Fold each of these.
Amino acid sequence: MLEKVDLNKSVDKENYKKLREEMDVKLGELQRACKAEKIPVVIVFDGFGAGGKGTQINRLIQPLDPRGFDVYASRETGEEERMRPFLWRYWTKTPEDGRMMIFDKSWYDKVTVDRFDKETKRQELNGAFRDILSFEKQLADSGMILIKLFLYISRDEQKKRFKRLEESKETAWRVTEADWKRNKDYDTFLEMNEEMLQRTDTGYAPWTIVEATDKNYAAVKILSTVTDRLEYELNRRRMEREEGAVHPPVKLPDERFKNGVLSGVDLTKTLTREEYKERLDKLQKKLEVLHGELYRLRIPVVIGFEGWDAAGKGGAIRRLTAGIDARITRVIPVSAPTDAPNDVEKVHHYLWRFWREMPKAGHIAIFDRTWYGRVMVERIEGFCSEADWKRAYQEINEMEEHMANFGAVIVKFWIHIDKDEQERRFKERMEAPAKQWKITDEDWRNREKWDAYEQAVNEMLVRTSTTYAPWTIIEGNSKYFARVKVLETVVEAMEEKIREVKKLRK
């Protein structure tokens, strides 16, 4: 594919200046329009070393309002990045609504540079491509504009630029042994890049090949690509809004999950106080040993708690953390079920705030409420569209698969109680001065939506319980039983993962 690209394309200085002036004005207008429409934009610069990414980024940003964009230079993977799934550092850099993020190199290093350097193993490659495609689709589905530019130069041109950089003390550091190695084996690296372009060129995130031998020509093509795409997306979205106003979507009731998984849960299960204390003590002692083993083996752990109001999530979390080293454990409280995401969270992809909190290798993250708010709270309370929450099941499964592929233990709990038990606990909280802060008028109002929430939970459990991230339903009417089952489940998951990792490393 790339060998057919004409790298001799150029533009004279006079035409370059004229075209730049026209497109600079247009790009500034389009940036302001995207800001007004609250549309986030990602622009990826990728391609061959010495292709001119830095120069072209500088040219692109000249007409832009500097308050409306950021540039992220993705260089060698550091210790912090190596201890997390490879998409983590890019998820955390995705722009908020109305802003632009320009990536100097990107997540594509995983399937090109790292592949060439044999840091990405052959058996990891297909999974990495799937992760990249799902990542970009999730961003695009959320309304983000993705523009991907591949700067292409020949082997000889690259060699010439490397030598020129090495002639100056100020620029010599930019050329590494790895750069020269890829130049020497240019054809192999070219094939890897061609495969990447073919496998990741999609309608929602297409690649543009930039003939980068002539820097002025490259600048013009980049500017025209960016302006054309922004203009197209702005017009398309305006038309969709107009059509949507005339033809509103029809919302159909879904009764398939009305009587589902939760209806078969046995809430009579219980433990005596003596049984509870004995089993709790043993399990917490096991956790004291296991967390050290997890740390040494660099295994991350993600534990998510969901459940009804007053189901006992907090109590279960306290008993769980009592047996784990606080230095490697974080509890992340997520907003109450009736709260919408805050102002910062609202202007990002809904998964952004959870990606930020994902644990590094050997550490444990415990979420008191999770990303499943998208298909429960936000669904029921109308904080997102029907299309948004219906799409979220797959997006969540893909996120959890990415974490699992990195080697994480993923444990998810739904703590279940019946409506009568919830009412009893609500009244108990109101009568106890030390617990009154736990109960609000909103908690009582939410009980009126019990049936709608139950249906949503049933659907969530069916659609997002996977082999790599299964749901565990906790029979929660008895707090003693619930707390012990939580700890048992976590211990079993940790032990299984440790055995698996040790077996692979033999």
Amino acid sequence: MFNNVRRLSGQLFVYGSADVAVLGINFILLPLYTRVLSPAEYGALALLLVVEALLKPLYRWGLDTSFLRLYYDYSSPDDRQTLAGTIVIFMLLVNSLVTLALVASFPLVTEKIFGSQAYDLAVLLLVGNRFVSGFLFLPFSLLRIQERSRWFAMLTFIRSFGTVVARLVLVIGLRWSITGIMLADLIVSIILILSLQKTFRQMTKWRFSWNMAREALRFGFPRVPQGLLHQAAAMGDRVFLGLYLPLEQVGVYLIATSIASVIKLYPEAFNTAWMPFAFEKMKETHAAKLFARLGTYAFSVLVFVTLVIAGLSEFLVRFMTPETFHGGAKIVPLLVLGMAIQSTSMFISTSLNVSKQTYVYPVATFASVLVSVGGYLLLIPQWGLLGAATGAVLGQLTLVVVLSQFAQRYYAIPYEWVRLIKATLAGAILYGIITLLSATSVVVSAVMTIALIAIFPAGLFVLGFFKPTELGEIREFMARTLPGVVKPVESSMSKNEKNESATDRID
């Protein structure tokens, strides 16, 4: 078990390091953006990001997930290259038609969304970027499969750093506003595609297989309506806010969402490492038990990350933005909670992906959309920004509940519910303490948050979260890391720990 944890943690650390570095850069730029762009422009950007999010599944067709899953169904390099070639040819043909249709209709669309055609060029650049960047998942997926996490992280960092530099020049230097943001993203995508030409040639054969195409679409296509519905649920709060409140309030909400989205760094990094790992292990005898145990560890880290971001949220909003955006500070913890709830779907999805029952995704997401839209309609007129955040949380909770009901039918994973509850309880108690302290001062709350999160592992220990074998493995690791400070396992483990049943060990 500990070997699997180390392997997965190593991949996760590398993926996460790149994401954290990118986040750090973007956080540094956030005060600059908020001083160059007005709340109204931020509101327009929020709506433009809705358009981008809705286009993403239309340009991928769920084939990014299909490639990862089907790669392990083929053993020969020739078949795997044909699979990649089939996906590329399909996307070139279909996405070209999609792009032509969008370019022909986007003036009317932008008029409906923004109330004018002032952002026509920005939308055109956005569509171009979706077409180009849609192919990038193939070389990045191959790096994940090969566990070349350092190369993946380096390319991710280069892409994001290049985007930041380009945005600095175009948005802050030349004052091209939102159009500059879209142009910067397109330029970087083109450069990255050109630089990865050698990788494309190595992993792809220009050969089309109808059988592979059908299998890839059968597995991946349900991701299209699921992706559209997901983005409708995720971005719908901004759309409905735009119907009921001034554009400035939409901009404030976008800033709150941007800060809350920091929590996504962990689940995204985890999922990047997790999916190829799970597909590799899925046929092993004790795979389900392994997934459950690793899920327990991953969930505990998620609780920890949620605690950190929620506890520091108000401080971050006040520190990173001018006063005109401070109104969103109070809803950030609620947004963080919703995103944390939704992030648990990365564990649940393992069952559906392994069993290839991807049709469940649009069903669950449709239920989520119904609940969230109902929440927006009822709550935004009454509660404003708080109503939008509450509606989003209700929809995210619905998604997880429905997914879990289907997932266990097709590939049952024996989740360690008692331990999951203990981790949640530890986080809830500590956050309650942080909330009480926040009444005194934002700075005091931030300092105490950092101090309290340090005792989160201690809280888990007090609640009996750790198994004896895990404590033994932790001691062994610390003994190797800190020789002379921590005693070796043999001299510190109790007789009961040594005699623990082998059934609790997962190799």
